[in-house]
């Protein structure tokens, strides 16, 4: 039925913390339709706040049936908007990473016999052994993190195998907690899905396999051979491999859409479902990063994405399987202290005006005369530190700078150097083909971007991508279903079809680059000193 690539649609879904978003792309990968369901606003019966329920002892969960009901509502909205769902040839999606869904024994029978006359949330009301899923904001599993790392000998060995040290939000520690504290629930659980594969399971009417990229955010997958790590499985819970099922490559066609969606919503029975993935891997696909490129999202948190040739996990950040090229990996590192810290320094130094803030950046000396400031309003993820630290050109800790406005440049320079330093530790190396792709709230501030360009010694581009994860999942569906057998790389295919252009914002200044080359090692020394000071203050 779909002989011409340009006559068919792909449907993409993004199940994030606070909402479910759906977009429909046409054959040129342009958005035709979109809709969303905001959990707090449109599903108040689940009593969530910002999409989750916070309980005592750092427990954070979300109701599974809320997500199912959101899918009911979103598909009804999409159909009501005039979208002809019979033109959808492929479906792919993504979801918040690390969260887990627990299917009850015989839930597969419910999935395969969905009644098109009923809502999904009614048919699946008894499908789950655990009605509230632990999500990425949960930090209640420190005990199980330590046990997992101890089973490998230390945290570094775990990271080398699975791509990350043990984190409280990661699925392995969450499953271990369920097995330990709710053994009856674990016993009656037939399948454990990630949130992404849970959503895919509904569309195929059976258990969908976890994909390599999202699976590598669990502390359970050996990222080099892309198989479950037996040592990790044994350390978490007995019989876990059977409950997880097999993993599959990204871009795998899982099968055709379930009859339920054909009969209830008018989907074509030939519509294919492509393996779903995590939101961060999908964002990498949406930004369509090529070799030597780094994507930086400047938001409440600052996040670095990059494509890597080597999958050597370490204690800093995360290494995941690349979502669009099985021979590559992706690096990811997140810093809590981003835009809110920049805004606080602005308000402290110049008041409400970003123009005055930028004027200081543009008129003060590159390198800040050797003065360095480190600003951790929140306890940072990497390094694990909190507070403000100012250093003079000789590396001595000082209480304040000679001039208050020096904090402006110190804040932006230290954040930019931090981004470069940790990108390099993940595997980034600058070269002639290097470039930086900026997204997020600060992506229009050229004064900040010029400093980033100079620190990385690379040109900075921007791309208007308000929904990079959802768009990336759509790109993945289109690529997986491409008509040609030609082995065209994902990067080239998406550029060829979409025609999406990046906007060059700034290029590096050679003189400034040399200054920052010298500052990187000084920054590293100051960060180490601050780290020592912070922990000496904690010690009685």
From TrEMBL:
GO terms for cellular component: cytosol. Transmembrane segments: none annotated. GO terms for biological process: D-xylose metabolic process; xylulose metabolic process. Keywords: ATP-binding, Carbohydrate metabolism, Kinase, Nucleotide-binding, Transferase, Xylose metabolism. It comes from the Eukaryota. It catalyses: D-xylulose + ATP = D-xylulose 5-phosphate + ADP + H(+). Signal peptide: none annotated. The keyword Lipid biosynthesis does not apply. One of its GO terms (molecular function) is ATP binding. Its EC number is 2.7.1.17. The keyword Transcription does not apply. Residues 133-286 form the Carbohydrate kinase FGGY N-terminal domain. Residues 295-481 form the Carbohydrate kinase FGGY C-terminal domain. Pfam families: FGGY_C, FGGY_N. Belongs to the FGGY kinase family. PANTHER family: SUGAR KINASE (PTHR10196), XYLULOSE KINASE (PTHR10196:SF57). Phosphorylates D-xylulose to produce D-xylulose 5-phosphate, a molecule that may play an important role in the regulation of glucose metabolism and lipogenesis. This is Xylulose kinase. It comes from Artemia franciscana.
């Amino acid at each position: 039925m779909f002989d011409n690539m340009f006559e068919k649609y792909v449907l993409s879904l993004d199940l994030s913390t606070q909402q479910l978003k759906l977009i429909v792309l046409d054959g040129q990968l342009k958005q035709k339709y979109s809709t969303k369901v905001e959990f707090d606003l449109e599903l108040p019966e689940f009593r969530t706040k910002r999409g989750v329920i916070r309980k005592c002892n750092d427990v954070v969960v979300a109701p599974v049936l809320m997500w199912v009901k959101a899918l009911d509502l979103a598909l009804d909205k999409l159909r009501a908007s005039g979208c002809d769902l019979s033109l959808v040839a492929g479906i792919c999606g993504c979801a918040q990473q690390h969260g887990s869904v627990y299917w009850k024994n015989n839930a597969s029978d419910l999935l395969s016999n969905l009644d098109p006359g009923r809502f999904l949330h009614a048919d699946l009301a008894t499908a789950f052994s655990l009605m509230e899923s632990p999500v990425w904001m949960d930090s209640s599993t420190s005990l199980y993190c330590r046990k997992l790392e101890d089973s490998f000998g230390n945290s570094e060995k775990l990271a080398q195998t699975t791509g990350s040290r043990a984190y409280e939000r990661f699925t392995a520690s969450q499953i271990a907690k369920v097995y330990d504290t709710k053994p009856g629930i674990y016993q009656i659980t037939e399948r454990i899905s990630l949130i992404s594969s849970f959503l895919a399971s509904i569309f195929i009417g059976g258990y969908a396999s976890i994909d390599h990229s999202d699976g590598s955010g669990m502390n359970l997958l050996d990222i080099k051979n892309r198989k479950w790590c037996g040592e990790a499985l044994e350390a978490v819970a007995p019989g876990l491999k059977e409950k997880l099922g097999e993993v599959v490559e990204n871009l795998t066609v899982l099968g055709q859409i379930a009859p339920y969606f054909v009969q209830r919503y008018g989907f074509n029975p030939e519509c294919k479902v492509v393996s779903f993935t995590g939101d961060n891997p999908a964002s990498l696909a949406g930004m369509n990063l090529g070799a030597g490129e780094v994507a930086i999202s400047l938001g409440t948190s600052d996040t670095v994405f990059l494509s890597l040739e080597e999958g050597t996990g370490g204690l800093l950040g995360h290494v995941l399987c690349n979502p669009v090229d099985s021979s590559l990996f992706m690096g990811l590192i997140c810093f809590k202290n981003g835009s809110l810290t920049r805004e606080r320094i602005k308000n402290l130094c110049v008041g409400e005006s970003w123009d005055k803030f930028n004027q200081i950046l543009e008129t003060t000396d590159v390198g800040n005369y050797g003065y360095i400031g480190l600003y951790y309003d929140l306890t940072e993820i990497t390094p694990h530190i909190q507070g403000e630290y100012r250093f003079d050109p000789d590396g001595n800790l000082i209480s304040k700078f000679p001039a208050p406005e020096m904090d402006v440049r110190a804040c932006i320079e230290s954040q930019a150097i931090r981004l470069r330093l940790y990108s390099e530790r993940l595997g980034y190396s600058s070269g002639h083909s290097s470039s930086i792709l900026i997204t997020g709230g600060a992506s229009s501030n050229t004064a900040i971007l010029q400093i980033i360009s100079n620190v990385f010694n690379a040109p900075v581009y921007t791309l208007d991508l308000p929904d990079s994860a959802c768009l990336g999942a759509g790109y993945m569906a289109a690529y997986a279903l491409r008509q040609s057998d030609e082995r065209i790389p994902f990067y080239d295919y998406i550029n060829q079809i979409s025609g999406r252009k990046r906007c060059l914002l700034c290029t590096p200044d050679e003189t400034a680059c040399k200054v920052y080359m010298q500052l990187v090692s000084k920054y590293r020394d100051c960060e180490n000193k601050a780290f020592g000071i912070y922990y000496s203050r904690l010690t009685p």
